[in-house]
Amino acid sequence: MCFGLAGISCVNAQTTFRNPIITGMNPDPSICRVDDDYYLVTSTFEYFPGLPIYQSKDLVHWKLIGYALSRADNNPLMGADASGGQYAATIRHHEGTFYVIGTNYGGQGTQGVFYVTATNPAGPWSEPHWLVYWYVDPSLLFADDGVYYLSPNNKDGFLLGILDLETDKMKEPLKKIAPGLGGSSPEGPHLYKINDYYYLMSAEGGTGYEHREVIQRSKSPWGPYEASPHNPVVSHWKDPDNLFHAIGHADLIETPDGWWLVCLGIRPKGGRYQHLGRETFLAPVTWTADGWPKVGTDGIVQQEYPRPNLPPHPWEPQPVRDDFDSPKLALPWNFLRNPHAQDWSLTERPGYLRLKGSKINLQQKDSPAYICRRQTAFNMEISTQLDFTPTKTTEEAGLLIRGNDKNHYDFLVTLHEGKRVVMFRETLNDQVNRVTYQAIPDGETILQIKATELEYQFFVQKPGTPRELIATALTKNLSTEMIGGFTGVFIGMYASGNGEANSHPADFNWLDWIEND
Known about the structure:
By secondary structure, this protein is mainly beta. The strands form eight sheets. The chain has an eight-stranded antiparallel beta sheet, with no helix packed on it. Strands 27, 29, 30, 32, 37, 38, 39 and 41 form an eight-stranded antiparallel beta sheet that branches. Strands 7, 8, 9, 10 and 11 form a five-stranded antiparallel beta sheet that branches. The model is unreliable at 1-13 (pLDDT under 50).
């Protein structure tokens, strides 16, 4: 049992590690190395802050240290659709500066390709340098003869240019240098200069069950490129019995122990249903005699590997309980789109997180009073103690499990037929399928969600008394296969007046986050 920072591996074995290394919705990983430290970024879509930065010293234990996009002015998300917002980014380091380049896709603010810089990966990061392109999955290569900018061309191949960091313009027009290699949706490219070759590695087949990673190379960055006879570099496309699927969208890293690869993958349960989202995996890379990389010997990501021959470096685990006694939120907490500052406070009632439910709910492409975290394990217990007195049937506050705006499970305190109740509400495909009410006494109320691989259970409890089961719901109804999109489940604290502000704030005394996987 591990009570670490949500989504961060805290493997204690000295000889092996288990995949995935970063759990919960952490797709499209990109990695760089600076001396003995490794830094990794993943996608965040409509969640805020954007593009988390993780640090490791051994490739196995990872610590969340900050976000590349932590302000509304550099991460405009208002109006973004579910699975819009911040798409796959690349992280690189050059001459003392970190670069993260990505695409903001959707919303009411500035959109398109941008990059931000920092000398400290924990931040602060610069304002975005907008590059006025619309391609997703951009990447950078710092080489002796310039800064190469690489991206898909949204059709059937890859574009390359040399970026002038002084003007943020291309020194020459972007040029198509290579096609995809036959699979759908060529994307996620990275360019590496290794010995005498430029290697162009990319994903294709879509980000679902036919996902794969392929590679081609050339003596010149401009081509022509030849495809590896050993492709795919990694894929579980033709391995239907594997526990991991959709393996792809990878990045290579060289260490003193040789080459490794980080990639995304999913862990379906109960059939082809995955609700945690695409997670980050790690696998060793071998090089063939003719100079091509491949994951292991068979291109399959295993559950367990010998750990990298690097000094083990576990991090101090995040406490199980957040007492909300700090003036700042802990790093794992996220918002939906750009939060409204007046909707929440950690100081108005010291020792509590206060949510002042506004008129906004999940039906608008806005930011309700919702503070949440990625679900990071299949078997979990999330509990909170809530002080909330509703005065209207529209006023509600409690815990909410969100797949997207149209699919979510709500476990809330509200008013029904003149009584204070706890309510379970199941919303699927934008329709309320089921509502259950249970009268509860005045005073602070403990709400608990118990998660298993296939089911959520919802309990209510008055402090000092036994808990009572109110409802159950299926995890698969919030899976990507059922609701679409690119994100996994988020769970957190929520308050809304559904059209007008709540009369009273909702005060959360604490929240326990226990991973039992």
